[in-house]
Each structure stands twice: as structure tokens, then as C-alpha cells.
Amino acid sequence: MKIRVGVIFGGESVEHEVSIISAIQAMNKMDQEKYEIIPIYITKNNEWYTGAMLRDIETYQDMTLIKKYAKNVVLYYKKGRFVLQNKGFIKRVVQEIDIAFPIVHGTNVEDGILQGYLQSIGIPYVGSNVYASVTGQDKIYMKQIFTSEKLPITKYTWFYDIDYKQDSSKVLEQIHKLKFPVIIKPATLGSSVGIHTAHDDEELQEGITDAIRYDHRIVVEEIVSNLKEVNISVLGNYEVQSVSEIEEVVSSKDFLTYEEKYIGGSKKTGKFNNSKASKGMLSASRIIPAGIDEKLKEEIEDIAIKAFRVIGSSGVCRIDFLIDQKTNKPYINEINSIPGSLAFYLWEPTGKKYTELLDDMINIAVKDYKKRLNKVHSFETNILEGFNAGSKGVKGIKGLKR
Ligand SMILES: Nc1ncnc2c1ncn2[C@@H]1O[C@H](COP(=O)(O)OP(=O)(O)O)[C@@H](O)[C@H]1O
Ligand SMILES: [Mg+2]
Predict the structure, then answer these.
(1) Residue 195 beta carbon below 6 angstroms from any ligand 1 atom
(2) Cα–Cα distance between 88 and 86 in angstroms, integer?
(3) How confident is the model over 370-402, as pLDDT tens digits?
């Protein structure tokens, strides 16, 4: 029997559309002999839909079609099965799935929130668990962990919006310990949203004012000059890891803007433009392999594997590096726990076809799941059995006021 894979995508995120593209690409590449593919689309309003039409990109041109023809469902655990059940008047199991495959990007979905739901109903799922997903999305947690593990990152500081509102001079003083220019980032966003560079105090204050519109925690870090940006993908879990080819990202601006990343329009300058990868969301110019020497390549591979393990990632992730070309020093910029297009274009040059990559990811998820099942999660004995709540009983406990 085929394994029923529920591919979950969309969601309440600025990268909603990117996720649709990533998911449709992946569903088309999954081994149809082995897997029965069930699309599960989450709208921007957090409604879940399923139906064959969701595998077709044209469906998304008219959302009313989805509401009309796809089935509005909930995913839950029912008597040993994971089911998608109709949300309508007549509650009917529409589909059963064996494993969930989140292909989602950004807040509310890639950041551990969706993973938490999947784990709470007990379904096996592909990719990083809750903890790794949270850490991957949060630029502050990530930096704190990398610092304590002595992995190279740029000098940074962070603060709460309230700290800045109450006493901006103290926050500015803290930032002045960094070397200018600096870059200001909301802690948990992606796609360059709310990110600003600052060469002086005026730009700094403008940048902070905008960044705090998006998040209550803000990071300010030193800018890497003579910048070369390279990305590498790591596949595996905490036991075994392998690394992909390295890509070099070419940008015409200070940094990649949302438009440049997803809407396109940057001048193609790469020696080699992966035509499949440069469609739509992956329209930033890229050079594969990156123009770096063997020593730096090995150093990046080594750091990437360490970062992947330290975070506790699983499946495929992409780790982005900033290189100062003068010193040849690499800094980890960020880890993407569900990269755009699942970074398949970095694996193809290594001889791993996209179909095989997807297969590997599902196999890793099954292994992770079995390992999780083998750990002790709860105790058979009910320690509340002999508990005497007194004359008030359980209701009494609930009613107790502190
Ligand atoms: N410290 C830095 N020095 C130079 N450029 C940077 C630095 N941090 C980020 N950038 C630029 O800004 C872009 C977006 O920053 P990043 O931290 O990756 O945010 P996002 O999560 O939105 O992708 C990077 O791709 C890079 O071009
Ligand atoms: Mg980035």
C-alpha cells in the first residue's frame, strides 16, 4: 500500500505564496509509485482545505474556487488514525494520512507553531521538530546558541521595543558599542521584511522605528563589508548529515529585498543561472557552485553541519553565510528550517535528484518518529489515583482561588 503523505502548505505568513509554489513543485516530484499525495492547503485565515485541485497552481488565481470546490477540513487523531474530517454540517472523514509533510515558510508555520500542532496530535511529520523550528526562525535565540557553541556570527545586540520606547538613549548606547554600519532586524520575520541598514544615528532611529512595527524584539548587528553571500543545504538529523553544493547569491542592492527574492527583477549576472530555480520566487541571481576556494568551502561545510546539529534540525535545511571577502571569514547569517524549493537545486549538482531528496526526507522523518516513540513520554501509573481533593472534589480544586 502506498504511504499517504499529507503535504501541508500556505498559512498565515508573508511567505504564503512562496509556500504554494514550493509545495506544488515538491508534490509533482514525489515518487507517485510509493506515495499517495494529499494536498492540505492552509489559507491566510488559517482554514484548512484538501482536494486534488489544490495541486494545480492555477487554482490559486481565484480563491473563491477553493472555498467552493475544495473540502474545508480539520486534521486530527481518531482511534489510531490521522484523519482529515469535513468541517461542514455532516462530519465525514474525507481522507486518512500517514505522515505530514509541511512545506511552509515563515511565521506561524515554519517557526514551530504548525510542528507543535502536529506533534500534539502525534502524527509523524517531515522536517525539524518544534525546538529546532523555533530556534531557526528566531534570530536572537539562534545567535545566542551559536555564540555559546562558538560558531562564527557577526557582533550583535538585541532589545525589546519597550526598552527603546522607555529609554532610547540606553539602547542606543548599547548599539554604539558595535561598529557602524549596522543592520536592524525584527527577530522573527523573514523575507527581509522590516530590515534596515544604518550608517548613522538618524538612519538607526528610523530603522528601529520601522522594525518595531513588526516585532517586539529587535536585533542590531554589524554589517559584513566586502560581502559575498553563500548558502549551503544540510540533509539529515542529529545522527547523520550530508552537505549540498554551495550557491552564491548575487544581489544588486545592499541586501535582498522582498521584491528581489520573490517578485524578481534583479539583473541576471550569474555565471550559471539555474533556470528552474530562478522561476518565480527563486529569481535572485545565483551562481552554482559558489566562487570560493576549497579551504573556505570545507570550512563552510564544517560550520554548517555543526550549526545543523546544535540546533537539532532534521530533514533538509539551508544555512546562509556572509563572507567578508577581504579576510575570507565566514559568518553564519541564518538557518532556514524549510528553505524555498526545499533547496533541491543545491542537491541536483551533487547527483541527488529532487525525487530522491524528498524520499530521503520522508525516510528521515519515519526514523525520527520511531526514535521519539521509543523514548519515555509519560508514565502508566496515575499519581492522582490516591489523591483526595477533600469534600469539594475535583470541582472544588478548579474553583480554588489563589
Ligand atoms: N550582518 C550583515 N551584513 C551584511 N549584510 C547582511 C547582514 N545581515 C543580513 N544581511 C543582508 O540582508 C539580507 C536579509 O537578512 P536576513 O538576516 O537573511 O533576513 P531574512 O530572514 O529576512 O532573510 C541577507 O540576505 C543579506 O543580504
Ligand atoms: Mg535570509
Answers:
(1) yes
(2) 6
(3) 998 888 777 777 777 776 666 555 555 555 444
